[in-house]
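F.,

This is the one I mentioned.
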């Protein structure tokens, strides 16, 4: 049984690597992937949910499905497109859900124990919020591309801002997330987003996109911290569900998702240092512990107390134990991929 689980872990990790190659707006974009956009959307979503203290089964199911479906891009590429006729949103959602289910049926045939438990969900206020946040995330990605000198993206940015103006005009006050949606759009249009907690959260996440793991070692497949947090989250979900299903455990899926998503958030300044160096002796252990503690405190001021508490309490409870275990296992799997598959004996 253990060998089957280990084999499944490798298959999921490799599928995750493949999916991470799928780009958005490929003509203008060589750097950012669909999973990058999804991760920004997820972080904004979790912040809204935590600020509202609104953790329920529907939230967990919607977030669970959204995270899982990013893994199918190794087979499908980008499935996102803009729906001009909003009355067709439910039909689009239904077609897309059926396609995703079909892909997961195939994936579940080639893994033995850690099954993808994607379920058909009706369009609800939480999935709609994630769709809205994808628009925001995509816009923020392209804004950063523009700041880095990509002038080809200018027209997209202008079109997106025009779209946001129409969206805020048409946003109904009885929309369940009216307050959050209007606040985000208005702050973008008034050029105040960067100084907000939402803006700081996105800055940290985008920094993690540019912080690479194993920074002292040459890799054949570079792996950034944002992608790593996605993979840890995905595999932690599958292990937790296996434990609940087969071992009668009671792992909280929403809790394990949030712990996994934020477990390396303190590395946003580029302090991703390989463990052997951190643990070289008592002096280095103390030094890096102090650095991480200071970065955690700075994060509290940037992203708010609710998300800060997730970071500080990451290792606690069964959910933290599983997530940390997955984090360590991924390091070993990365070693096997680099050395055994790619012949990178330096690694």
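My design for it:
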């Amino acid at each position: 049984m253990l060998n089957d689980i280990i084999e499944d872990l490798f298959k999921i990790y490799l599928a995750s690597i493949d999916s991470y190659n799928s780009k958005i707006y490929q003509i203008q974009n060589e750097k950012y992937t669909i999973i990058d956009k999804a991760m920004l959307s997820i972080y904004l979503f979790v912040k809204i949910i935590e600020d509202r203290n609104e953790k329920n089964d529907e939230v967990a199911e919607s977030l669970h499905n959204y995270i899982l479906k990013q893994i199918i891009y190794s087979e499908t590429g980008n499935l996102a497109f803009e729906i001009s006729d909003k009355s067709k949103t439910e039909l689009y959602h239904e077609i897309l859900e059926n396609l995703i289910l079909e892909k997961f049926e195939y994936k579940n045939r080639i893994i033995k124990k850690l099954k993808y438990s994607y379920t058909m969900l009706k369009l609800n206020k939480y999935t709609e919020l994630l769709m809205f946040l994808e628009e925001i995330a995509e816009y923020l990605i392209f804004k950063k591309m523009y700041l880095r000198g990509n002038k080809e993206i200018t027209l997209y940015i202008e079109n997106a801002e025009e779209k946001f103006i129409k969206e805020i005009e048409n946003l109904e006050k009885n929309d369940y997330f009216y307050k959050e949606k209007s606040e985000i759009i208005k702050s973008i249009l008034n050029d105040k987003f960067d100084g907000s907690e939402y803006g700081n959260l996105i800055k940290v996440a985008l920094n993690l996109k540019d912080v690479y793991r194993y920074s002292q070692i040459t890799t054949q497949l570079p792996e950034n911290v944002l992608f790593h947090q996605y993979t840890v989250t995905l595999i932690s979900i599958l292990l937790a569900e296996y434990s609940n299903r087969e071992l009668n455990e009671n792992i909280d899926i929403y809790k394990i998702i949030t712990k996994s998503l934020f477990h390396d958030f303190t590395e946003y300044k580029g302090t991703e240092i390989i463990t052997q160096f951190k643990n070289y002796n008592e002096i280095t252990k103390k030094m890096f512990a102090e650095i991480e503690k200071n970065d955690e405190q700075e994060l509290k001021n940037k992203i708010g107390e609710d998300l800060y508490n997730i970071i500080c309490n990451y290792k606690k409870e069964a959910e933290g134990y599983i997530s940390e275990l997955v984090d360590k296992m991924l390091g070993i799997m990365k070693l096997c991929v680099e050395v055994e598959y790619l012949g990178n004996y330096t690694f």
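The two ends are 29 Å apart (CA to CA).

Talk soon.
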